[in-house]
Amino acid sequence: MRKTTFAAIAAWAMAAGAVHAEESIKEQQVLDDIVVTGARQQPAPAESGTLNAGEIAAKRPYVSDTAQLLDDVSGVSLYGAGGVSSLPAIHGLADDRLRVKVNGMDIISACANHMNSPLSYINPANVESVKVFAGISPVSVGGDSIGGTIIVNSGTPRFAEQGQGVLTTGELGSYYRSNGDAFGANLSATAANENVSASYNGSFAQSGNYKAAKDFKPGTTATRTVDGDHWISGNEVGSSRYQSENHLFDVAFRHENHLLNLEFGYQHIPYQGFPNQRMDMTLNESFQGNLRYTGNYQWGNVEARFYKENTRHGMNFDKDKQFYYGSAATILAPGMPMDTQGDNMGTLLKTDIVLSERDILRLGVEYQRYRLDDRWPPSPSVLPPGYTMGGMAPNTFVNINDGQRDRVALFGEWEARWNPAWLTLFGVRGEWVEMDTGQVQGYNNGSMYNGAPLFPVTTFNARDHHRSDYNVDLTALARHTPNAALTFEAGYAMKTRSPNLYERYAWSPNTMAMEMVNFAGDGNFYIGNLDLQPEVAHTISATIDWHDTANKGWDLKITPYYTYVQDYIDARRCPASVCGTSTAVSNSLTATSGFVYLQFVNQSAQLYGVDVSGSVPLVMASRFGKVTATGKFSYVRGTNETTGDNLYNIMPPNAKLAIIHKLWGWTNTVEAEFVGPKSEVSQVRDELKTGGYSLFHLRSSYEWKHARLDLGITNLFDRFYNQPLGGVYVGQGTTMSGSSIPANIPVPGMGRSFYAGLTFKF
Ligand SMILES: [Cu+2]
After folding, report:
1. Cα of 127 from ligand 1 centre, angstroms
2. Ligand 1 is a single-atom ion; what residues have CB below 5 A from it?
3. Distance 475 CA to ligand 1 centre (A)
4. What global pTM score does this model have?
5. Chain segment 355-406, per-residue pLDDT in tens
6. How far is CA 434 from CA 393, 405, 408, 418, in A?
């Protein structure tokens, strides 16, 4: 009896594995009913990368950061941040320039440092599928972005087969990594009959500071913290520890071709250090409610969604950064608390209408309402005796007051399969973005810090803050499949993104306030710009894909692309008219090193490059197993066409090679990573150059029917390297005091780490 239960679960697991990649299996069924002949063509455009449940499971023992799951996807690179908060970049465009959908929700980072990036809201343990649209992303997968779309989903609800009774299934997993003494665990459980399914998915992850390879010498700085003096050892990377906890409850109802799905999510991050930010996350607490309906009708599909997400985000100095500021005799500022609240609500209605055997029409409407409050309570909250005024007292500093960013979007997309060799896709999307913010205030009306007027709040408050943008996106794409071994896809896209709340409304020209507004991780000081326009990108991109006719042997894919961005939001050295006439600001105008004062500004930019990826079987199935080689190479170049400067954080040329051996339940992998030196750097931001490096990793896993064991070594030779997109190391010491910490140390990568993971399925 036990055997049959297991067999049923295994069969179900296989079935689930086969369908999870597409949002709905029934979409396929409906279409198959109409398009009778042969296999259905893949919808356009071909994703530049997908990860399925198996590939994600293999990464969990060594990845706690969902963005890092994308590391092997062609065209994707990662901005370093906190341990669970990296920011993905596609073809050199990162962060808010990408549309990131987590379980269908457009999450917005509620933080002046973008610490709580959208992908930080889901743990890899909760992720079941990932899709990346680089280059030409269809208008139906999201607007208000110029660089592509990333779609991350936790599992689709599971139901019992007819006559199976109650289905119970789940998974329990855990891992340990030597570097940083990191560990984590996850549990998922589902109980379902044929029509109702309830599931829970939870995860926990924790790590201490990681260690770079042995010769990292940032100089040791004593830091006065809440717990007393703290010293960082020679190769420890300060402010890189983290702890995170995620829970997801899901109830789903199925009736014939209708599925209703209600999810509740909760996240709690008590601390996450940021080695490239002057502050650390001391709290991220988020509640999410997400209701979805999908229906399959004779004429097509309907998807309706309503979500609400609320984030409370706290920042201060964690244990590696100096906590107390002031004279030796009296502590004037015990830390610098910052408290951010983001309130996000969205709704979506989308239909796929099958017009004929040839044509599919997709229509949709989306609405998002977003509110943000960013307040910094006074420090100290009560002035010590003898002081009449503190630098950060007695008022609450209001960085963003009732910030509003609302979007309404309408789109239409027409996909036509003219014949087996030709497919075309055209889309139009109109988007209306409304932004506003209330009156702000500084800590006080005094003047200190470089002698500039402190917080000239009157200038900002006197201006009208309301902004309306009317944005249009267009995509046109064609795919030609002359024969079974070759696919050629090419297209054009016009994509628009409105500025975020900080780019428009961060208002204070005070050094300390400006250094707290930074999503670049470069340690510089930023101020917003009320006159910013939306950025508009024009992209042309093509993909040639050769593969053997069985489509599982060798394969080679080449994607060249070119993007011109009108009104690209870059930065300029902050002029005296905005940041004042202090010596520091004047010096910053011409400085060629160190931290500088910057203001967001519209300029124009171009980016171009090529992605190459492929795989080739070296040994076909034999009694020694099967051996496959895979590889990818990426090149991207980004320049500011207004100033002639280079764009910031552009990944140097890089390649990845892997040899994968499979035998019985074993999968053994040798991976090599080669990264060129980063020499084309942004001068306006005093971006640091980084050297080239190569890294090797060994991974091994064994899969039983109900268990999986993973063992591996990352950075096998303990090679020291600096992360090309890791930003400037400001992970320790007096990080609140502008230029009082070194500006020339890049954030190093992790030294050697051993890991082990064990997963049970029941
Ligand atoms: Cu933050």
Report:
1. 24
2. 111, 113, 115, 315
3. 35
4. 0.92
5. 999 999 999 999 999 999 999 998 888 776 766 566 787 889 999 999 999 9
6. 33, 6, 9, 40
